[in-house]
Amino acid sequence: MPAETQNRAPRTVKAVIPAAGLGTRFLPATKAVPKELLPIVDRPVLQYIVEEAAAAGLTDVLLVTRRGKYAMVDYFDRAPELEAALSAKGDEERLAAVRRPSELADISTSRQSVARGLGHAVLCASAHVGLEAFAVMLGDDLIDASTPVLPTMLEIQAEHGGIVVLLADVPKEVVNRYGIASVESTGRADVVRITGLVEKPEPSEAPSTLAVIGRYVLPGEIFAVLRDTRPGAGGEVQLTDAMAAMLDAGTPVHGVVFGGRRYDTGDRGDYLKAVVEMACDREDLGPAFRDWLKDFVRTLP
Ligand code: G1P
Question: pTM score > 0.90 for this model?
Fold first, then answer.
């Protein structure tokens, strides 16, 4: 094997999507429907995330799930009766839309039987992932497909190894909802070196306003660290604490700084913005919806 091939970091092909949450911010809708299946126009949030993974070449997708959320797995399976009915009607467009989720990626599941936090959810992926670097994608963070971030994150991880996270500048008053990074320059405008990470600090104690947004490329070694990570903020095992421990032990940690459109679809207000903006962008629905929206806005007090 040529030396160049030997030294190259293994290609990251697996994505892990923690999807075991109770969806409390969206109750009562999420009492019977997983929040990941709430639609943005006519596709569930989770499909956008899997589409993003697949577009970056990550077609081995593990959903970390829990009891009562089987509908997520069914969504990515074939639906022979529905397909036959659409086919008999000659509705090729809907047939293609119904088949698409099952064609995007190989979906597997792992169960998080107790809710012990994001770090614990990621640890539930250890048997599936093994020792390779892998991506973690949080379903609440919807990233506009016109500004993809995973390809750059994978490229930085292949170059430097270690950990790569996505960062975005947030208003100071909301830093206590995020993992916050202290950073220094790499000389490249969109990539920073991370020198510290803290989970959900109070605004007065936050080292910056650069928040970790739900995309990570992590080395397989994180699992051993997560096993030793004690519960932190909110009494939960925090992924941020495991990353901070690896940083302290000398693992390189980089941040890709994101400036595009993103939505926290677990937040009702942001969810509504996502639906409206995505609907405006749609070639089929967009023109008529935009006209209606302009008229509607004029009627607002
Ligand atoms: C999680 C992480 C946090 C990160 C956030 C991004 O928090 O713990 O570090 O900034 O996702 O959405 P959660 O939203 O699960 O409270």
Answer: yes
